[in-house]
């Protein structure tokens, strides 16, 4: 159950990062409210997962999901560039996440 909450927390991190971009520096009300709501929800689920998962594992997985997810949203939704170096960086992050999961089993 902790792993499911952690994955959900990571997905919600992507949601709040994207809505923060849409908020234009918190100058737009609706995206700002969405940002704060999903930020609180993401942190709450991360805290729940940390009750049973090691700190280093939980935090690394959470930030990794957020980083790679936000990278993908940037490419597919916002039209940001998908250069070879950026793709390699994402692959390295994912590799680190897989190794972290394997090492904590």
TrEMBL record:
InterPro entries referenced in this protein's UniProt entry, alphabetically? EmrE-like, Small_drug/metabolite_transptr, Small_multidrug_res
Assigned protein family: Belongs to the drug/metabolite transporter (DMT) superfamily. Small multidrug resistance (SMR) (TC 2.A.7.1) family. Gdx/SugE subfamily.
Q: Where in the cell is it found?
A: Cell membrane
Question: Which keywords does this chain's UniProt record carry?
Answer: Cell membrane, Membrane, Transmembrane, Transmembrane helix, Transport
- Residue ranges annotated as transmembrane are 33-50, 57-78, 84-102
Signal peptide stretch:
none
The UniProt entry, under Gene3D superfamilies, shows: 1.10.3730.20
Kindly indicate whether the keyword Metal-binding belongs to this entry: no
Query: What is the recorded membrane topology of this protein?
Result: Multi-pass membrane protein
Record's protein name: Guanidinium exporter
């Amino acid at each position: 159950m902790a792993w499911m909450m952690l994955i959900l927390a990571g997905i919600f991190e992507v949601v709040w990062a994207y809505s923060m971009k849409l908020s234009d520096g918190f100058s737009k009300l609706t995206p700002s409210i969405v940002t704060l709501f999903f930020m609180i929800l993401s942190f709450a689920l991360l805290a729940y997962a940390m009750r049973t998962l090691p700190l280093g594992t939980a935090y690394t997985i959470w930030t990794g999901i957020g980083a790679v997810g936000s990278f993908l949203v940037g490419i597919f939704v916002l039209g940001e560039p998908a250069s070879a170096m950026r793709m390699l960086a994402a692959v390295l992050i994912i590799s680190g996440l897989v190794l972290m999961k394997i090492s904590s089993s």
